Prior knowledge:
Layout: H1 2-25, E1 27-31, H2 32-37, H3 41-44, H4 48-59, E2 63-69, H5 72-88, E3 96-100, E4 107-114
Parallel strand pairs: 2-3
Antiparallel strand pairs: 1-4, 2-4
Amino acid sequence: MIFKIRLLLLLCSVTATMLVFAEDMSSMNISYEQWEISRHGEKLLKLPELTDLVRLWTENTQKVLEMHYPGGEEGELWVQELMDWLIALGVPSSSMQTVPGSGNEDIIKIVLIQGKLTNE
């Protein structure tokens, strides 16, 4: 009986971990410090979270990369530059949308969402 309870707890734990991992794969944060280091296309491709996110998008191009960026002119310039690099790497602008307010002045949060674009 104790073995069955432990096995059940283990299975629940593994399932919960897999759900958290799946959630993490559909979003990522890019800090300003990280961006400054990998500001070129070839270096962006070395960010594992970004390559995973783009790979997930290529599996369903009906989804949209929604980028939550810091407000203000600097945040707008940063998200535009990121979008330019993603376009150069093969993601069409029609598959991206921007949303001001990432909740942090030095973070862009990218989320893979299902749905229609609200702004371009």
